[in-house]
């Protein structure tokens, strides 16, 4: 494959005696949408935390866009181009969708507006915030306080905030968690629109979403990579079926232990 946008070698993180990630190898091609699946406690959240810089590895290396980043903290990795959305909501509920987007753009823009006049800066911030809402399909909901948005819309807005810094890699931790089926479908459609434009690492329990979206799937079990392959090959992989997807050869949506 082309030079990976992100690669991890020997990535290891233990909590006491529990190896949450054990010698994880990962290589994401530019533009790829990679799903990471695995049973509860497999190490998926730990892996995204290690990649985002929220957790320090005990061992291993991470390269992103041609340089080693394991020594960088989360803020520096965000500046380097790694965006992150969270399982736990990170929105300001009393502010409108547009105000939340504006704040995210302001934070992401850092000092880049520092030498511009305030009015010009404000126009640019507003335009970018509106564009972000458009990207995630929330333009008609711009004036709605976040607390009044549906759960699915809040998750869409979180993606908009993660895009504010124009990341090259987007780390998404269970974007469909807690969603009604219709909301999940809207989220899958949103990720379909984003794919290719940004490299995505998607941790997800919803197997319908995973198999609809992923270019390749990495299966984690007990902190280790059991397999990385195309969706069809993962579906047919006997080890994966035994460990995670169930024995029925189906898509695992009903049988996955999550
Ligand atoms: N802060 C922590 N302290 C101690 N143990 C932890 C901590 N975070 C995670 N673990 C343990 O590390 C292992 C991996 O957890 P992790 O949350 O990364 O798994 P996961 O695949 O994301 O699970 P889930 O699907 O339930 O979110 C589990 O055994 C978990 O109990």
UniProtKB/TrEMBL annotation:
<dbReference type="InterPro" id="IPR003593">
    <property type="entry name" value="AAA+_ATPase"/>
</dbReference>
<dbReference type="InterPro" id="IPR051120">
    <property type="entry name" value="ABC_AA/LPS_Transport"/>
</dbReference>
<dbReference type="GO" id="GO:0005524">
    <property type="term" value="F:ATP binding"/>
</dbReference>
<dbReference type="InterPro" id="IPR032823">
    <property type="entry name" value="BCA_ABC_TP_C"/>
</dbReference>
<dbReference type="GO" id="GO:0005886">
    <property type="term" value="C:plasma membrane"/>
</dbReference>
<feature type="domain" description="ABC transporter">
    <location>
        <begin position="6"/>
        <end position="247"/>
    </location>
</feature>
<dbReference type="InterPro" id="IPR027417">
    <property type="entry name" value="P-loop_NTPase"/>
</dbReference>
<dbReference type="Pfam" id="PF00005">
    <property type="entry name" value="ABC_tran"/>
</dbReference>
<keyword id="KW-0813">Transport</keyword>
<dbReference type="GO" id="GO:0016887">
    <property type="term" value="F:ATP hydrolysis activity"/>
</dbReference>
<dbReference type="InterPro" id="IPR003439">
    <property type="entry name" value="ABC_transporter-like_ATP-bd"/>
</dbReference>
<keyword id="KW-0067">ATP-binding</keyword>
<keyword id="KW-0547">Nucleotide-binding</keyword>
<protein>
    <submittedName>
        <fullName>Amino acid/amide ABC transporter ATP-binding protein 1, HAAT family</fullName>
    </submittedName>
</protein>
<dbReference type="Pfam" id="PF12399">
    <property type="entry name" value="BCA_ABC_TP_C"/>
</dbReference>
